[in-house]
Amino acid sequence: MDAKKTVLIVEDEKNIVDIVRFNLQKEGYGTLEAYDGEAGLALAREKSPDLILLDVMMPKMMGFDVCRILREGGDNVPVIMLTAREEEADKVLGLELGADDYITKPFSMRELMARVKANIRRTAMAAAAPVETAASVDKTGIFVNTECHQVYKNGVSVELTQREYELLSFLVASPERVFSREDLMKQVWNYDYIGDDLRAVDVTVRRLREKIEDDAANPAYILTRRGVGYYYAPQR
Fold first, then answer.
1. Closest CA to 9 of 29, 34, 27, 30
2. Is 128 exposed, middle or buried (0-12, 13-18, 19+ CB in 10 A)?
3. What contacts 220, CB < 8 A, 6 or more positions away?
4. Which of 121, 91, 112 is nearest to 204 (CA)?
5. pTM (2 d.p.)
6. Can you tell me the distance from the alpha carbon of 137 to that of 129, in angstroms, rounded to the nearest whole number?
7. pLDDT of residue 118
8. Residue 93: which residues within 8 A CB-CB, separation 6 or more?
9. How confident is the model over 45-75, as pLDDT tens digits?
10. Could you give the 3-state DSSP secondary structure of residue 70?
């Protein structure tokens, strides 16, 4: 593991920050800490960490707002939301705003470290994509450039989060092949699913459809095989 990778912990409970920092540093990561949302946003912009652990409920600015502002500014740093609440709406909202993952308190350090490693690893893998597989093109105008991590539709750039881009490029690479949500969790999220984590796949598919489909309610590119999974349908 590259010891140069830095994780920003944005959490207002000092005891949680202390134990998370200890475990991250034990694994060889550098750490930055902020105890409210405004300070976390400032550190994210100033230091450009490799991953952010972002609490939802914080003083001055909620984690949801920090995530939204970063994404609106074009920052695709991996974000794992930390929440003490079990409500499905909270988890979905974080994903809708562009978070890559979430974990519910109380969480085990083993699970948290696995999530951190998986998200940093997938980012490194994406950055190392070989140039010779730089482009995939659909006859209808969907163009995925894996060299510069850009997606175009009919010549117009489509703004995707890192996770949306990775999901689309993965599906495009195997047209017509159906992948279960469990498959996608392993191949795109880079870890086995736990509990209701599969919800993250559904939300990401929905957000991706809203950006690349002419009609998200009647998709033409990313289709569902009921009871099986998702697949990419190139247009003839």
1. 34
2. exposed
3. 140, 213, 214, 233, 235
4. 91
5. 0.67
6. 17
7. 80
8. 64
9. 999 999 999 998 888 999 899 999 998 888 8
10. helix
